[in-house]
Specification:
25% strand
Length: 316
Amino acid sequence: MDDLKVLLYLLVLLHVLSPSLAASPYNCPVSFCGSTAYSIQFPFRVVGQQHDMCGYPGFNLRCDNQGKLLLNLPNSGDFSVRAIDYRSQVIQVYDPSGCSAARRLTLDLSGSPFWGTPSKNYTLLSCPVEDDMSNHTSVGCISNSTHSTLAISSERFAMTMANQTACRIIGSITTPIAWWQDQGGLTSNLDIDLALTWDGPNCRECATRGGICGYTNTTKQDITCFDNTKKGNKHHIIALVIIAIALPATAASIALAFYICRDRRRVATCVARNTTPSAPDTTTVSNGDTVIGLDQSTIKSDQKNKICSPGARVMN
């Protein structure tokens, strides 16, 4: 009965650990590119590695010969992908050539499914290197040997600097700056990653649950949340480990309990067989006028203790 209860418990445990979402009917494995430590999944797909059913229009990625993942923005060109957060639906990209600040000057997200995270306005100043600008942050990759470029978040401060120094205003930009990227000062280094987000398809809740979005059928009309089979396999492995540990332990416990009970019953049976009432008798040895001997009941009791001790064999 005890082992049956344990088996039923393990079956219930397997049911609990089983994924609650259906598996995707399409072969859309999670992909990687080069040394990227994050997975690439719907709505993104890697061209040449995943079927077009595995991605959403506008979310195509490429893996170049150097193992770098690239996102193409129709009106802004290629960007390298730093990271993808599926729960918040943010993709972090940067300029492959190493000057994201310059790419911000011409950034155009039209024609793509992405939009900038909360944007911020900056006035750009070009200041001669002879002027001491050590108290301000310059944008190194758009500066040169004769002039430093400053990105100033306060238009009033920019006008003041232009009037009181040799700096001159060369333009202004509105560019995406994520809340964790805001440097808080009057001048900022814009040579940082671009954080772009998307609204559709909306898979935030699915990603939070640990699932993966995908098309329900080949018409690509509807999107649903599928089970992450990698997560499901992990749950099954855990369940199998539990079974592998629990079943032998249970079997050993049952065997030990059976052995103890059988030994106790054997001792009880032996005692019952050897406990027979008899008249007192004495075995004597004559030694002159002195009689030396043991009471017969004492002799039988000693024999019974030897025969019925645990580990002794009972002869029928």
